[in-house]
Amino acid sequence: MRRFLVSGLFVWVSALVAQAAQAAPIGYDCTLNPKVKNGLLSPGLFIAHDPATGRVLVSDPMALHVNNGQPVAARMVSDGAKRDVFSWELKFTNRAQQKARLRYRATYFKADNRISVVVTPVGYSNRIMAKGTCKVGAVSKIHKR
Predict the structure, then answer these.
(1) Within 13 A of 82's CA, how many CA atoms are on the CB side?
(2) Radius of gyration for the chain, computed over Cα atoms and rounded to the nearest angstrom
(3) Rounded mean pLDDT, 36-42
(4) Are 55 and 16 a contacting pair, CB within 8 Å?
(5) What is the CATH topology of the domain spanning 2-143?
(6) pTM value?
(7) Which of 46, 56, 102, 60 is closest to 76 using CA atoms?
(8) Measuring CA to CA, which residue among 30, 56, 55 is closest to residue 41?
(9) How many Å apart are CA 48 and CA 29, to the nearest integer?
(10) pLDDT, tens digit, 9 for 90 and up, residues 101-121
């Protein structure tokens, strides 16, 4: 599954490497332990961030399902000394033909490679959370794993 998540980003990253040689795109290859097994958060999450352009893409099974097999655009909310924070939103029509929106927020803690991901269904008060760890490095190196 990890190879599938990363391969979708590899073409994008290859193009970025050709354009911006000064800063290599960074990959966060994360393994999560979701407490609720409903598919909104899965055990695998991949985030690619290009510091040169600010572009961020996220890939996990839910994002790929909702976005026709493509990673979704995200944004870097914070790039601090202790943590990086990313956010993204998924919009889709559910099985009952209702419009649905999910807001995701991932916080990566640099000191110990931990990550915390929270998803909030828009219009509801509940939140679903998962914690895990990430391997972080140049996307081209992470892709070879």
Answers:
(1) 0
(2) 15
(3) 81
(4) yes
(5) Porin (2.40.160)
(6) 0.81
(7) 56
(8) 30
(9) 9
(10) 999 999 999 999 999 999 999
